[in-house]
Design goal:
Ubiquitin-like (UB roll); 14 helices; 38 strands; Vancomycin resistance protein YoaR, contains peptidoglycan-binding and VanW domains
Length: about 600
């Protein structure tokens, strides 16, 4: 390039200054032109020197102000909560900010007023983990160095970086929400016989933990009440989409049978079997997805599948001579490819014609072999629980208890596996050997198939409870019955109420059941982990008295003496190596069971 006529090598990296030309008073741009006075060139040289000098002075001034403004790590004029941090190193700024926080300790510890919906409350900052992150705040203040040109002078207040324990905050705010919120109604399609029933989704109204935390972080030191939003969340599947699934899949699915063909023969899958196996499942986001449950399909087809399938048989354990032993080594079988059958059957269910699928039979190994069972660590009794009943073994209720006990006896639950009582037994109806006995329906005792199975459920629940196993799902009765321990008991009802526990140990476990003419016992065999599992009760509170209700006499009327209602807490206390390793709280409120009298009310 050329500068003032001098050749400069391209590699020259000396700095250059670009000066914009300015017009000075008395400038004569046409000097040197014929007819104009001479001397213009000299004046231009003088002006160029002046311009260069002013530019140098301006740059020197800018450099000086910049050096002043950015002395230290934090630019001068920077404050946080009124504390001057500017011109300091990060370490000095952090010390100054901590000193300011100490001076404001009472202010920072003061309760924080919050509003959630229509309710107000106060939060204790320490209980929800509200704090100023000093190091992060100083880092944010120091980041201003990146904006040197814009902030050479003046003052700047940097907001503090606030931290909060989101889980603890959410738990505290949930108490404020109370009954203002509502749970999401998930979309669903169920079958009553072969008639599909649509459940339309409804949005939830609840706290969003992240948004709650952001609102509290921003509003904590503002001196004003903090408004925490309740957020409405809609399920992913809409009501219109549910109706479309009913019209396009659920109704056509049960309109006609499907023929299942294999190399060993064919089976007709009737509408009832289809209805029992076609499931519409919603995930946490409310996305409804149809699928064929092959396990339910097998149960619905029953003996029809025995013509073409040979199910594998698991190895079995039983208690013999007071010790768990393998009593059956099991055997392999031959079964339909379940994944392919579910896929192909789902594809033809919407169709009116061509309702036929081809099933492929594959070798099926048992889930539990004798070798695997022997390696599970099932060697000793871990817990046992007994409840008592009346009426001997001849009563329908007692027979139901024995029937479900026999079904569960000998079940092996693998490490990490969740056991579902409904999933294990399937539907408990007349075809499965259950009989009519009293059940609670709409708040009163009425005859119902399977009555008494709740007593077995309570016995099994307590056996797993005292084994220290993880409670996944259970629901106590509406009324308390003296034959059950308060709070730690469970009802069951097909298909809506289930009992589930998880084997949260590294060992397998064996469920052993036994009975007498007046009692049912469930024992858990595995490898003992804990020293002891015990229950501590709180006093009963909120006592309510039963009212008297007169019912029309007849076979469906079952009298009751009435039972007080109350609320109580039960604490599961688990000890290991002489120390309490877990203290788990269970709480339940029992309604007062009315005194039912089969007869007309006295006038």
């Amino acid at each position: 390039m050329t500068l003032y006529g001098e050749k400069v090598p391209p590699a020259d990296d000396r700095p250059t200054v670009q000066v914009t030309a300015v017009s000075w008073p008395g400038d004569d741009p046409e000097a040197g032109v014929p007819g104009r006075p001479a001397g213009g060139g000299a004046r231009r040289r003088i002006r160029m020197l002046l311009a260069g000098g002013i530019t140098a002075a301006v740059l020197a001034s800018v450099g000086g102000v910049g050096a002043y403004a950015y002395a230290g790590d934090v630019p001068r004029g920077t404050t946080v909560l009124g504390a001057e941090l500017g011109g300091r190193s990060r370490a000095d700024a952090a010390r100054e900010l901590r000193a300011e926080l100490d001076r404001r300790a009472a202010e920072l510890a003061a309760p924080v007023p919050v509003r959630v919906g229509e309710r107000t409350a106060e939060l204790n900052p320490a209980e929800v983990g509200l704090a100023v992150d000093v190091d992060a705040t100083v880092a944010a203040a120091a980041e201003a160095r990146a904006h040197a040109v814009d902030r050479l002078v003046g003052e700047r207040s940097v907001p503090p970086v606030v931290t909060v324990d989101i889980a603890r905050l959410d738990a505290a705010l949930a108490k404020v929400v109370g009954d203002q919120g509502r749970k999401m109604t998930m979309p669903a399609i169920t079958f009553s016989g072969t008639t599909p029933k649509a459940v339309h989704p409804k949005p939830s109204l609840a706290l969003d933990p992240e948004r709650s935390a952001e609102a509290v972080r921003q509003g904590w030191l503002s001196g004003q009440p903090v408004t925490v939003p309740l957020v409405e969340t809609h399920p992913a599947t809409t009501a219109e989409e549910v109706d479309r699934m009913v019209a396009e899949l659920a109704k056509p699915a049960v309109a006609a049978p499907v023929k299942l063909s294999t190399d060993k023969g064919s089976v007709t899958i009737g509408p009832r079997a289809i209805a029992k196996s076609l499931r519409f499942t919603a995930d946490k986001a409310g996305t409804l997805t149809p699928q064929v449950d092959v396990k339910r399909l097998r149960a619905a087809l029953g003996d029809d599948l025995t013509k073409i399938e040979v199910p594998p048989k698991d190895a079995r354990m039983a208690i013999s001579g007071g010790r768990p032993k393998v009593v059956d080594n099991g055997r392999p079988g031959q079964q339909l490819d379940g994944a392919a059958l579910a896929r192909d059957l789902l594809a033809v269910l919407p169709k009116a014609d061509g309702r036929e699928v081809t099933g492929e039979l594959k070798p099926a190994e048992p889930e539990l072999t004798a070798t695997k069972v022997a390696e599970l660590g099932i060697k000793e009794k871990v817990s046992s629980f007994t409840t008592r009943f009346t009426g001997g073994l001849s009563s329908p209720r007692s027979q139901n208890i024995v029937t479900i006990a026999k079904d569960v006896d000998g079940t092996v639950v693998l490490p990490g596996e969740t056991f579902s009582l409904n999933g294990h037994t399937g539907e408990r109806g007349y075809a499965q050997g259950y009989r009519d006995a009293p059940v609670i329906l709409d708040g009163k005792l009425v005859p119902g198939v399977g009555g008494g199975t709740s007593q077995f459920t309570t016995t099994l629940f307590n056996a797993t409870y005292y084994a220290g196993l993880e409670d996944v799902e259970h629901k106590p009765h509406s009324y308390w019955f003296s034959r059950y321990p308060a709070v730690i008991e469970s009802t069951i009802f097909w298909p809506n109420l289930d009992f589930k526990f998880r084997n949260n140990t590294p060992y397998g476990l064996l469920i052993d059941t036994s009975y007498t003419s007046s009692s049912i016992t469930v024992s858990i065999w595995s490898t003992k982990i804990y020293d002891s599992v015990k229950t501590e009760y709180s006093p009963r509170r909120n006592i309510t008295k039963p009212k008297t209700i007169y019912l029309k006499p007849g076979p469906s009327c079952i009298p009751a003496n009435g039972i007080d209602g109350f609320t109580q807490d039960a604490y599961r206390v688990i000890r290991k190596d002489g120390k309490v390793v877990k203290r788990e709280k269970f709480t339940w409120r029992y309604d007062a069971e009315p005194r039912y009298i089969c007869g007309a009310e006295p006038s």
